[in-house]
Amino acid sequence: xxxxxxxxxxxxTPIKRIxxxxxxxxxxxxSNPKIDLATYTLAINGEVERPQKLAWNDFLKLxxxxxxxxxxxxxxxxxxxxxxxxxRLRTIAELVKPKPEAKFVTFGCADGYTTSLxxxxxxxxxxxxxxxxxxxxxxxxxxxxxxxxxxxxxAYKSALWVTRIKFTVQKELGYWExxxxxxxxxxxxxxxxxx
Length: 195
Known about the structure:
By secondary structure, the chain is mostly beta strands. The chain has a single domain (3-180), classed as Oxidoreductase, molybdopterin-binding domain (Sulfite Oxidase, Chain A, domain 2, Alpha-Beta Complex).
């Protein structure tokens, strides 16, 4: 099935490229944070047996995979057949060994943004911490150097500029979820806002 024949979630229209934060979306968020790979760290902690602080080179030593998926924004646009490269969230979980009571994960970002998902929602082969898109390193407006990709959810669940991953017992609502956006963000159920 080619891109033109692909079924889209309800209310979505295909466009050619992903909109960039602070460039194509001026005024929605603060300016893109300036991140230096020489000092960047990804903190992974919370309810885990083996907390980690990964420097950029440490992250790149983890098993890297490529995954093709569609990207859906809550505003109604979709970009089809994006090729992401990164590390599966399952790999991160295997590294830190979540405690049995850990059921959720909160993602913190360099600009103060947060979102969260359940471990079950993060277990798919296509759920990545991505650092490349379509063969190129992420641009700042796409979440450089690292962003979450959860294709079955609207893009506000695919946090940009990720610097912290916290495993939790209880769900922590993120930035948009506290402001009336759906916590499930299911693209196939058109679940955009709290009802």
